[in-house]
């Protein structure tokens, strides 16, 4: 079946969402959430995820109100010309930074676990060029590649479904709220930060072939992610306990490492995990690379995104090389998380604004 | 490069050439990479595969003697010395190939260093021709001296290496660590592998404490909790895995005997198959032995706080078969079976109570992690008492133990 | 770097036309002068002994006539029985009966409508057509005083009998393979599809070979867009000769740089018929038994007709095996190299010790060893393919066993590597389509290279790149990776598994057939 160019189906949107968000922060997330909220981190996740669901669906509704239109078109109608331009420019920069950040974390992890002595430039450039190769062809192949990779990215999910024999204590989540509600609140920022990347919905809605169904797709996607994060959090907590988890950089990887089946096979499952994880990081980097290019191409009126793809490549590379150490990278991650949080608030407000305007008397399309 | 945007008509062609350029760039890159260097290429046969690691503490003076260090000893940084034994694999010997030969599949390298100087891989590099690769580590053995003095700094260094599997089983020994790594039976290729395999028997032979992995040891250390590490003892021709060392935080405190280990497992509900032996007077009033093998067990622990007193209600439910009987009389009668069951339950109960009492009064250490159940059920109370748990509140707790034993089968004889 | 000089446009056009016509411009027509016609024909055809100019007399008036044909291409029976006899014998009798002298035109008309019982008869005035016909198994009849000639189609050249194609052997299925003659192939297809909507359009491609091709499809099922695109591309072909369908395939495919084939070929008549019934277009090419199937998506190359003839469990399992085999064929050597050289932690301890032990004596790194073995295997395979059948098989066995064993003993390879290479090779043969199998074999090498440079990351990178490439590829407008992506669940019933025939109600969606129902509910009993 031929799809007209530049169209995505709701199913594809769900898959894209899951793949793009799953990659980067999911491994470190349990550690960061536990550091902030202790055992009750799962509540933070639940709340944070719920809020994010609202925000994401708001974006879907917003996009659905202006079918087939880029935010560059409809945002000014809601916010006014210059605030919208500012907003979109900042957003564009945000995604560039996020792309570089994702790339950086990815490279660091590859260096730690797989290739300790390979220079970072090599890893980064090979990765970036591969992503660029995909992106020049537009949204269609990008989405399709995500679909190809999706079954593979589900495998970590299944892996985590294998429970380690012995010493798994699901009771670790008890007692619930022993210290009151405060820890749950403290855990909210890292819990929301793990969903970072959800903003791409804003720019993907224009491609949706059934704009009104967008919210369902988004809902399923975020719901799935929420379940996945909850599950991985509970698993790692049950195995490591809250105290040790604070020290672990990547609890999920350590968890998978310790899975041993039948004492013979599958000793180092974490390497398998990393393999499949590379695929989902690829999707994340691809989308965060594509969105700024898309914005630029649409805003500047180019026919093709090749020029900007080429332009952005060295830019992202340099940005990714900027942080001097892992602490800086982590800090950037935290900042990105907070920005994402603010963005979620902004989006919900936008939606309310749009609804009000609609009720008042229609928005010129 | 900025002028790369296309006019409508030419689109297809330019796109192709650009992609081709990208592809060509990729191809060139890869080829170039391959020739400049595969930085992480480390052939498997060039690795010194470390199968086992044994660490013990020695006085600093001995370090100087054994190694012959010249110059300063960096005494100001550390006053402890460490002796490490590496067990390297000799793959040819292990594989039983025609090519391999009949040599042993391993060799041991023992070296010492001050605690401050402890880089595991580097330490062996001055003596072993192949660089050490700890990815395949099978076993980690801690000596008593080191354990009593504190294992944290040693293990911390070991674990920051992402290559070390935190899944490695850990043992503690009262004997010489190097000696432990030399003993093995003909069934196994190397001592490290022998010990690792031996460890797997623990689900069947309960004199062996439950397996303790490096990750769990770390967790125990960080939480300043009490954890139990299996003990290995060296014999003439083989090693024995029985009993355990009790750690508090990162120091070894006490030893659990073999039979105590069995009881310990009963309390913490880590019993799969376990014998209980009871002597029962027979109609001929001689003491006879009845052996019982438990096959389904569950121990539940519940803390109950009643008027300011902490009590633990422990219920043991077990079902099993009668394995051994030294009487000619058939046991296949209900009331006789019940009698035996009751007697066996009594024995178990007494043993469990004795052990718990020992930990309460002699050791003042909650090795069973009862504290956790208090935390779960009474989190507010726990917050107050957790700091003095081991020495004050735990010893004062009451134990209400109930053992419920059923004999369901008697093997294949009546 | 200087670009190569572009050929002069005018010169190109001239050459093109040269190719097209083969000689001077202008299309000559017959003249009512037999002498001239024959001389002209002789001058064009030359003096070959197998091109016959048979002179004879017709009718009472004894008109001179010529038969021009290529001996070896025509059925002699037709020449004597169907042409010469009526002309030389029956016609005079007829004339005698009616007492009239028949004019040439009438003679011709009579011949074409009544007397000659062979297949195609055409009236023709153009020399081009006459030449073409005479060289293709037709018989040209020229009579004096007329500027029309008759072309009688009478093909009768030696052909191979119908055999089972040995590149596509099945356990269960018809053993009729397509033949080198177009007409035979069309008949094989017609036997299987007796629907009036089944159309075969013919075309001649190749200016010097004038190879006849047949474009076969079912009018009310086929995807019109694909058909149009196909015809457009065929029309663009401007080559002097088509010797095999492969020429056509390479001239019309979407991407010639890709290691993956985009057009399927088959020697089996049943496979071709099945494709037509699914809404695809089959191109039969004269002088070769290999028919082309368009469009061809990635998934099709994993399908074998046997999947449909056997029951669904067997079909599904074998399909799954093939898919897994394809992954093995491409990635196992690279993964092995990556695992052994970079991450032995991936391998369980006992196995890694065994591998280390086996590799102790080998002087080169794993990469080199694996490349050596793989390339040696390719040599063996190629050598075995060219040798006559009996020797070829022996060489294969001898090569595999002895050389492999000797290599191990000589410490040039480790036994593990030999096994890896063997598994890879066997896996690549599990793929039913030879062209796809070769594509995978080629892809092995980048995987090995990258596995040797960047370990597991490198292998994954190649995987990503291959996928990107496949995703962006289209064949005749259909996504190459359909129905994997975009997800078209309806087609998945025939993808990795094959559900029972009762459930195969619709045709594959990806080909966008006009009529997508192929099976209705079971007929009611009377």
Describe the structure.
- The complex is a heterotrimer of chains A (365), B (414) and C (526).
- Chain A has helices spanning 10-22, 29-37, 41-65, 71-79, 81-113, 120-135, 139-160, 182-186, 188-193, 201-204, 214-245, 251-257, 269-300, 306-321, 326-361.
- Chain A is mostly helical and 365 residues long.
- Chain A has a single domain, classed as Amino acid/polyamine transporter I (Up-down Bundle), CATH 1.20.1740.
- In chain A, helix 4 (71-79) packs across helix 5 (81-113), helix 5 (81-113) crosses helix 14 and helix 13 crosses helix 14.
- The longest helix of chain A has 36 residues, at 326-361.
- The radius of gyration of chain A is 20 Å and the shape is globular.
- Chain B has 414 residues and is α/β, with parallel strands linked by helices.
- Chain B has 14 helices and 13 strands.
- Chain B has helices at 11-36, 60-67, 91-95, 120-125, 144-149, 152-160, 177-180, 191-199, 214-222, 258-267, 334-363, 370-377, 379-385, 389-396, and strands spanning 48-58, 81-89, 106-114, 132-133, 139-143, 170-173, 226-234, 239-248, 251-256, 274-281, 287-306, 309-325, 398-409.
- In chain B, the strands form two sheets. In chain B, strands 1, 2, 3, 4, 5, 6, 7, 8 and 9 form a nine-stranded mixed sheet that branches. A four-stranded mixed sheet of chain B has the order 10-11-12-13, with helices on both faces.
- In chain B, helix 10 (258-267) packs across helix 11 (334-363), helix 11 (334-363) packs antiparallel against helix 14 and helix 12 crosses helix 13.
- Chain B is globular.
- The model of chain B is unreliable at 1-15, 97-101 and 283-287 (pLDDT under 50).
- Chain C is α+β, with helices and mostly antiparallel strands and 526 residues long.
- Chain C contains 16 helices and twelve strands.
- In chain C, the strands form three sheets. A five-stranded antiparallel sheet of chain C has the order 1-2-4-5-3, sandwiched between helices.
- In chain C, helix 13 (366-386) packs antiparallel against helix 14 (389-409) and helix 13 packs across helix 16.
- The A-C interface holds A 1-3, 9, 11-12, 110, 114-115, 118, 122-123, 126-127, 130, 133-134, 137, 141, 143-145, 147-149, 264-265, 267-268, 271-272, 274-275, 278-279, 282 and C 342-343, 345-346, 348-350, 454-457, 459-461, 463-465, 467-468, 471-472, 477-479, 481-488, 509-510, 512.
């Amino acid at each position: 079946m031929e799809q007209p160019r530049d169209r995505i189906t709701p199913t594809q949107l769900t898959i894209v969402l899951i793949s793009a968000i799953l990659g980067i922060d999911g491994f470190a997330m349990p550690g960061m959430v536990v550091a902030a909220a202790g055992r009750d981190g799962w509540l933070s996740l639940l709340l944070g995820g719920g809020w994010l669901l609202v925000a994401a669906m708001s974006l879907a509704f917003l996009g659905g109100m202006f079918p087939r239109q880029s935010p560059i078109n409809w945002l000014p109608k809601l916010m006014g010309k210059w605030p919208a331009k500012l907003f979109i420019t900042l957003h564009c920069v945000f995604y560039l930074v996020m792309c570089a950040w994702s790339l950086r974390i990815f490279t660091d992890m590859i260096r730690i676990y797989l290739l300790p002595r390979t220079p970072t430039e090599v890893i980064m450039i090979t990765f970036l060029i591969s992503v660029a190769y995909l992106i020049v062809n537009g949204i269609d192949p990008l989405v399709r590649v995500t679909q190809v990779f999706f079954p593979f990215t589900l495998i970590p999910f299944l892996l985590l479904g294998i429970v380690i024999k012995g010493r798994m204590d699901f009771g670790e989540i008890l007692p619930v709220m022993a210290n009151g509600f405060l820890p749950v609140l403290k855990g909210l920022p890292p819990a929301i930060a793990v969903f970072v990347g959800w903003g791409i919905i804003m720019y993907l809605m224009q491609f949706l072939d059934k704009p009104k169904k967008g919210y369902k797709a988004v809902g399923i996607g975020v719901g799935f992610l929420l379940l996945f994060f909850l599950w991985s959090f509970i698993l790692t907590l049950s195995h490591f306990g809250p105290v040790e988890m604070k020290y672990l950089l990547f609890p999920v990887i350590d968890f998978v490492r310790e899975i041993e089946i039948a004492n013979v096979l599958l000793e180092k499952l974490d390497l398998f995990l990393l393999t499949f994880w590379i695929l989902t990081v690829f999707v994340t980097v691809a989308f965060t690379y594509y969105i700024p290019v898309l914005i630029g191409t649409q805003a500047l009126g180019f026919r093709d995104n090749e020029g900007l793809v080429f332009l952005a490549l060295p830019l992202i590379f340099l940005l990714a090389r900027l942080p001097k150490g892992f602490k800086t990278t982590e800090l950037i991650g935290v900042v990105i998380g907070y920005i994402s949080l603010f963005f979620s608030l902004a989006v919900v407000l936008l939606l309310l604004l749009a609804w009000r305007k609609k009720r008042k008397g229609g928005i010129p399309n | 490069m900025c002028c790369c945007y296309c006019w409508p008509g030419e689109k297809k062609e330019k796109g192709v050439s650009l992609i081709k350029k990208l592809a060509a760039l990729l191809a060139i890159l890869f080829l170039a990479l391959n020739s400049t260097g595969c930085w992480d290429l480390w052939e498997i046969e060039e690795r010194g595969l470390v199968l086992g690691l044994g660490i013990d503490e020695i006085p600093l003076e001995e370090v100087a003697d054994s190694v012959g260090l010249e110059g300063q000893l960096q005494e100001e940084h550390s006053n402890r010395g460490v002796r490490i034994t590496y067990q390297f694999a000799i793959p040819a010997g292990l594989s039983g190939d025609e090519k391999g030969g009949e040599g042993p599949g391993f060799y041991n390298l023992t070296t010492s260093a001050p605690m401050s100087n402890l880089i595991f891989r580097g330490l062996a590099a001055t003596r072993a021709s192949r660089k050490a690769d700890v990815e395949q580590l099978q076993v980690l053995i801690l000596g008593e001296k080191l354990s009593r003095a504190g294992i944290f700094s040693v293990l911390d260094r070991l674990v920051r290496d992402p290559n070390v599997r935190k899944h490695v089983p850990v043992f503690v020994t009262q004997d010489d660590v190097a000696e432990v790594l030399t003993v093995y039976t003909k069934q196994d290729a190397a001592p490290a592998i022998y010990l690792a395999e031996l460890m797997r028997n623990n689900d069947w032979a309960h004199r062996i404490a439950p397996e303790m992995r490096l990750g769990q040891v770390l967790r125990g250390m960080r939480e300043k909790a009490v954890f139990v590490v299996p003990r290995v003892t060296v014999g003439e021709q083989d090693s024995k895995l029985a009993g355990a060392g009790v750690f508090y935080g990162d120091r070894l405190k006490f030893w659990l005997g073999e039979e105590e280990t069995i009881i310990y497992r009963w309390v913490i509900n880590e019993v799969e198959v376990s014998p209980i032996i009871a002597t029962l007077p027979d109609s001929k009033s001689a003491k006879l032995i009845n052996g019982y093998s438990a096959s389904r067990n569950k121990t539940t622990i519940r803390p109950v706080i009643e008027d300011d007193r902490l009590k633990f209600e422990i219920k043991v439910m077990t079902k099993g078969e009668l394995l051994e009987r030294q009487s000619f009389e058939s046991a296949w009668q209900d009331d006789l079976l019940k009698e035996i069951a009751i007697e066996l339950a009594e024995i178990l109960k007494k043993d469990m109570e004795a052990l718990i009492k020992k930990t309460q009064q002699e050791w003042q250490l909650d090795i069973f992690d009862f504290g956790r159940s208090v935390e779960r059920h009474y989190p507010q109370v726990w917050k107050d008492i957790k700091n003095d748990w081991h020495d004050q509140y735990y010893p004062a707790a009451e134990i209400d133990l109930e053992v419920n034993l059923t004999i369901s089968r008697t093997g294949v004889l009546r | 770097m200087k670009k190569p000089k572009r050929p002069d446009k005018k010169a190109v056009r001239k050459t093109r036309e040269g190719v097209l016509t083969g000689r001077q411009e202008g299309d000559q027509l017959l003249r009512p002068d037999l002498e001239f016609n024959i001389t002209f024909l002789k001058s064009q055809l030359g003096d070959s002994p197998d091109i016959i100019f048979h002179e004879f007399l017709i009718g009472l008036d004894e008109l001179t006539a010529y038969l021009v044909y290529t001996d070896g291409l025509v059925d002699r029976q037709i020449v004597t029985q169907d042409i010469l006899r009526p002309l030389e014998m029956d016609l005079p009798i007829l004339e005698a009966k009616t007492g009239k002298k028949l004019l040439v035109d009438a003679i011709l008309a009579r011949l074409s409508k009544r007397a000659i019982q062979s297949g195609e008869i055409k009236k023709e005035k153009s020399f081009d057509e006459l030449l073409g016909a005479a060289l293709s198994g037709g018989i040209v009849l020229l009579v004096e005083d007329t500027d029309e000639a008759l072309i009688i189609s009478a093909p009768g050249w030696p052909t191979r009998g119908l055999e089972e194609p040995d590149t596509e052997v099945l356990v269960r299925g018809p053993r009729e393979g397509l033949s080198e003659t177009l007409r035979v192939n069309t008949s094989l297809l017609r036997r299987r599809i007796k629907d009036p909507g089944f159309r075969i359009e013919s075309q001649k491609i190749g200016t010097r070979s004038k190879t006849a091709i047949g474009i076969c499809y079912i009018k009310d099922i086929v995807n019109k867009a694909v058909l149009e695109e196909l015809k457009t591309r065929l029309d663009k072909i401007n080559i002097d000769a088509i010797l095999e369908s492969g020429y056509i395939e390479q001239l019309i495919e979407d991407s010639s740089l890709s290691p993956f084939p985009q057009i399927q070929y088959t020697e089996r008549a049943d496979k071709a018929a099945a494709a037509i019934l699914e809404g695809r277009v089959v191109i039969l090419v004269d002088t070769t038994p290999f028919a082309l199937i368009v469009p061809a998506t990635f998934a099709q190359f994993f399908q074998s007709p046997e999947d449909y003839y056997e029951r669904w469990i067997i079909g599904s399992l074998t399909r799954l095996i093939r898919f897994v085999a394809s992954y093995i064929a491409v990635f196992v050597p690279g993964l092995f190299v990556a695992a052994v050289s970079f991450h032995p932690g991936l391998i369980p301890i006992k196995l890694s010790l065994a591998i280390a032990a086996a590799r102790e004596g080998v002087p080169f790194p794993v990469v080199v060893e694996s490349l050596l073995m793989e390339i040696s295997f390719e040599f063996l395979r190629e050598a075995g393919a060219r040798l006559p059948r009996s020797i070829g098989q022996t060489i294969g066995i001898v090569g595999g066993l002895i050389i492999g064993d000797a290599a191990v003993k000589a410490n040039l390879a480790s036994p593990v590597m030999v096994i890896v290479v063997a598994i890879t090779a066997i896996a690549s043969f599990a793929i039913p389509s030879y062209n796809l199998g070769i594509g995978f074999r080629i892809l092995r090498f980048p995987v090995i290279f990258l596995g040797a440079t960047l370990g597991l990351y490198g292998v994954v990178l190649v995987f990503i790149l291959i996928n990107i490439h496949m995703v962006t590829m289209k064949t005749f407008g259909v996504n190459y990776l359909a129905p994997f992506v975009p997800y078209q669940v309806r087609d998945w019933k025939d993808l990795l598994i094959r559900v029972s025939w009762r459930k195969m109600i619709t045709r594959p969606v990806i080909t966008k057939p006009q009529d997508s129902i192929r099976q209705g509910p079971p007929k009611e009993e009377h």
